[in-house]
Specification:
Elements (H helix, E strand, L loop, with lengths): L14 H8 L3 E2 L3 H10 L9 E2 L2 H7 L6 H12 L2 E2 L12 E2 L10 H15 L5 E4 L7 H20 L26 H4 L3 E5 L4 H11 L6 E4 L8 H4 L11 E6 H7 L9 E6 L11 H8 L2 E7 L8 H11 L5 H7 L1 H13 L4 H12 L3 E2 L19 E6 L5 H17 L4 H11 L10 E4 L2 E4 L11 H16 L9 E5 L3 H14 L4 E4 L6 H13 L4 E5 L1 H4 L3 H11 L5 E6 L1
Length: about 575
């Protein structure tokens, strides 16, 4: 098969930059800025802009620059077609992929789908790590690849010509890939999608939205604890079992993998937020290492927060069911060898960079929001935004009060630091300690929704909201429209506190809260009200309720107005 990576030539990375990265330090320049300065010939005296390690440098240069060179190939090999423009499209160019009638894919997703599909149907290791920036649609890219693989296998079994082989039949191939030959029965098994528990609803909705017309069905394993391998595995006389997509949370699989789900076998799997499974000492890690599954797609949106060693551990369970020969060339052992050689000085840092890039390219795809085509056009239309890091600090009085509380709390709980840290996170917003987040009424415990106006102490985050954000929202809006903001707050108790504080002390701002007790229709009603209110407004919610990824962001973008500039403020 034609390689989609034939033309990739790694850009030059200065040794000084690599040296700082391989030791997990700060890098002098962000990659895009570094390239810009290299082009002008002046790469000196630039302040620190971001930080990362060698993983970030390697992964951000793997596919991004050359994506446009492969898009035509991806369209041809998938049989993708451009859809006619219509109101509500998710981008300027929207495409369809055969046998996914409800699917709408942006060009960068079409390329991503083919990258994933090619990993499985060729002679390479049938694994991939999809590490796009949040908002680029990893969920639908991975699901598109999974559904397309099922369709391609059914078409090959029926003896039809395949677009992925440029219109040839499997029988015409000199060397039949394992997917269509020696391992065909394995890939006819059901598929599995494993996600964090708080994303079960998001993934269930995404899967259900794409299933009509595919012949596949969704089975929520979290919803039925009685299902076993006898009910789920592909069996003679029951081929329909191979058409199932099993959805399960990591915590549920950890609890059932040696009991009800013992002996279960899958052909392909998607593992969302895979960076959370990187400790060899955990039960879940061992369960995933031993899982009976052939192909794996890991999804992660935050590789820049990892170091190289955690990357290696993640690849351990990505390659756990891969043939030894392929693993030795592209898997964790090879990564370890290169890193060890670099640290010992046996190879130069430039050689280490090139080696890591060569090892990872067949299975790692990384794209930034700034991805563009050869003519400079954006591959994905994102809302214009400005990001600002807001550094918060306590007043002397707040710091003393907080220190007194933590000292007392540690003494009462025998230095159970994890609990103290949890309370610290609450303190960062409310400073109303203790008992700032929940109330007990009879046998029920619920989040506190009111505080004493006279003696509460807001803390640095609330102070920033009142002094900086609220005046912006109450100011003149763009195009005569009122300003609106979505405020993501880490924990539910904090969300109620922010909502109460804004309502109480800033009545000129219309404040909404989206909380976990709301049904989905009520949430939709709330978002519509927030969208339509003709006044400055703020919507308070937690990241778990807001969701991550392109679809929830798109919904909120519609609420805020897609053409309006957006500012992003991150508190530290």
């Amino acid at each position: 098969m034609t390689s989609i990576a034939e033309k990739i030539v790694p850009p030059l990375i200065p040794s000084q930059l690599l040296d700082s990265l391989i030791r997990s330090g700060f890098k002098d320049l962000s990659i895009p800025r570094h390239r810009e300065l290299e082009a002008t010939g002046d790469a000196t005296d630039e302040p620190v802009m971001t930080h990362a390690d060698l993983l970030d440098v390697v992964s951000s240069n793997l596919n991004n620059d050359f994506e446009h060179e492969c898009l035509d190939l991806a369209i041809r090999r998938l049989g993708a077609q451009r859809l006619e423009p219509r109101d509500g499209d998710i981008g300027p160019v929207v495409m369809s992929i055969p046998r996914i009638p409800n699917g709408q894919f942006l060009p960068h997703q079409v390329w991503g789908v083919w990258f994933l599909v090619a990993r499985v149907i060729s002679d390479t290791a049938p694994v991939a790590l999809l590490a796009d920036d949040m908002g680029l649609g990893k969920t639908y890219t991975a699901l598109g690849a999974l559904l397309h693989l099922k369709w391609v296998l059914s078409e090959a079994s029926a003896g039809r010509e395949l677009a992925c082989f440029d219109g040839c039949w499997v029988e015409d191939l000199d060397n039949v890939p394992p997917f269509f030959g020696s391992e065909k029965e394995i890939y006819m098994r059901p598929s599995i999608v494993m996600v964090p528990a708080n994303l079960m609803g998001t993934w269930a909705n995404a899967i259900e939205s794409l299933l009509p017309g595919t012949g596949l069905k969704l089975i929520n394993l979290n919803a039925d604890p009685t299902l076993t391998s006898d009910d789920l595995n592909l069996a003679m006389g029951q081929p329909e079992r191979g058409l199932a997509i099993h959805l399960i949370s990591y915590t549920t699989y950890r609890g059932r993998h040696t009991r009800a789900l013992a002996g279960c076998c899958w052909g392909m799997g998607i593992f969302d937020e895979s960076h959370n499974v990187r400790s060899r000492s955990t039960i879940l890690y061992r369960a995933l290492m031993e899982m009976e599954i052939r192909g794996k797609f890991q999804l992660t949106g935050t590789p820049m927060y990892h170091n190289v060693n955690s990357w290696v551990v993640q690849v351990d369970w990505l390659f756990s069911q891969v043939d030894e020969e392929a693993s030795l060339q592209q898997g964790p052992e090879r990564l370890r060898d290169v890193l060890a050689s670099a640290k010992k000085g046996e190879i130069s840092l430039e050689e280490a960079y090139l080696a890591l890039k060569t090892i990872a390219h067949p299975w790692l795809i990384r794209r930034w929001a700034e991805s563009k085509t050869a003519d400079g056009q954006s591959l994905v239309a994102l809302i214009p935004h400005v990001t600002e890091d807001v550094r918060l600090s306590y007043t002397e009085e707040e710091g003393a009060r907080l220190q007194e509380y933590i000292t007392t709390f540690k003494a009462e709980w025998n230095n159970q630091v994890a609990t103290v840290i949890h309370e610290w996170r609450l303190a960062c917003l409310s400073m109303d300690l203790p008992g700032n987040d929940t109330l007990t009424e009879g046998t029920e415990v619920h989040y506190r929704r009111e505080w004493n106006e006279d003696d509460h102490s807001p803390g640095p985050a609330i102070r920033w909201l009142g002094n900086t954000l609220v005046p912006i929202l109450l100011g003149e809006g763009a195009n005569g429209q009122p300003n609106k903001a979505v405020i993501f707050v880490p924990l539910p108790g904090q969300a109620w506190y922010v909502h109460w504080h804004l309502q109480t002390f800033h009545p000129g701002l219309k404040t909404f809260i989206c909380h976990s007790l709301m049904s989905r229709p009520k949430r939709d009603e709330l978002l519509n009200e927030f969208s339509s209110v003709n006044a400055p407004a703020a919507l308070v919610l937690t990241p778990a309720l807001g969701g991550t990824g392109r679809e929830p962001c798109r919904h909120l973008a519609k609420v805020l107005g897609a053409e309006r500039p957006t500012a992003s403020h991150r508190h530290n």
